[in-house]
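Reviewer 2 asked us to include a model.

Predict the structure of this chain.
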Amino acid sequence: MGPRPNPVSGPVFLLESLSKQLQLAMRAFSGSFAIILTDTMSARSILAACLSLLFAVSAYAGVPQAAAQKSAEIQDHLQRAQTALHANDVSTAEKEFRAILVLDPKNALAHSNLGVLALGHGDCLSASKEFRLALAAQPFLPQAQALLGICEKRLGDPAARTTLEKSFQKLRDKPLRIQVGMELTGLYDGQGDLDANASVMRTLVDLDPDNVDILYAAQRVYAELADDTLNKMAIIGPQSARMQQVIAERLVNAGDLQGAIEHYRKALEINPRLPGVRYELAEAILEASPHDAQAQAEAEKGLETAVKVDGETTARMPGRHACWEESLFCAPIWKAPILTTIAPLH
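Predicted model (structure tokens):
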């Protein structure tokens, strides 16, 4: 075996003007759930996310003269391409990358660059071809794989889901991983795969918990998942105590406390030991009639029964005991859970 290659230069980065071209191309193809790159990444972060896949050309030390000469020529074309990009001369840069392919047809650097340039022009078909050639030459390029998946999705290629899922697991670049995740949610939404959608959303919220676009998309997914679960409950157990509890909680959410109280009582008629219901009923009574002494007494009795029936489960519910001890007329602290809120993340 010959000597190991020694890297001699850093990645080629496209300038802000080309980055904007890439953003415009992505905007033109954005899906219903996908966050446009312009909204989630600055020009600099796009460069880092989408173009950090452009790795350095390696020079070989101690190799035969012909091979060393070829490596030097490749390096020369690379430098010219970089100079052209700094001058916003995309056409010249493309010619230089193609010149590299004449010398080395399997050069993953050149194919990756050409793929990014094609994507910047909105040509996903050509970009896909270049990214596939780059991956054929060097399979472990998750960023190239990610951009390939995005192109496949724009082109309606069924392989897009598998490509995006593989890159999503491997990516370490946060902005690009977020973009890929949002692309996946668009696919899952179209395919009606709520479980997969919710799983990706949890990861995205963990990655960027303060991103309002992600939070908006997440609450839509979780709300749809909650509705789907509720529909299953309605089919499987329409007369069950839990179904009555869910209806009551929805009514609390809608501000219909009297209707909620009625359904909580129905739930207890069906299952007197249903955990949490007595507590929620007491809360609803207290909130519905904060100045009615009789209602307050009923609520307090309900809470005492809840503590006896539910034990520690009720005792750990937030706020209520302290509130009750201070005054029967204090504002309620805890409200019945809402099915359409964002699900807890693990």
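The two ends are 49 Å apart (CA to CA). The chain has 18 helices and two strands. We have added this to the supplementary material.
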